[in-house]
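Lab notebook, bench 4. Still working through the backlog of constructs that have no structural model yet. Next entry is a single chain of 121 residues. Request: give me the structure tokens for it.
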Amino acid sequence: MKIGEASRVSGVSARSLRHYEDEGLIVPGRSSNGFRDYCQSTIDRVLVIRSLLESGLPVRLIREVLPRLTDEPDVGTDVVCAEFLHEVQGYRDRLAARIAVLSDQQAALDAYLQEARRADP
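Model written out:
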């Protein structure tokens, strides 16, 4: 299918599909006229990528593990999954730490605003 149909079917913009290709996340086929040709397995891969990106994972991490998760399901899956889960856990821990800092900053601003409102006649 051409990029417009692939975009419609996957719910991902044509621009994003091109970006995924530029990042090495997908490799669509090419028709004789040079147009991109997306097969169902590429669309399935796009849906996995989209889900991982929406979860907040960086492209770097997705690029590293995605080929092993989707292309070679029987080769070293346990090791790949363990490494991937370790990376995801680390990313989640860093995210939780950032959220804690932001929550503290929000609480400080809330306290400041509350105090300022009491002082304002």
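Notes after review: The chain is about 70% helix and 5% strand. Helices lie at 3-10, 14-22, 40-54, 59-70, 77-119. Flag for follow-up if needed.
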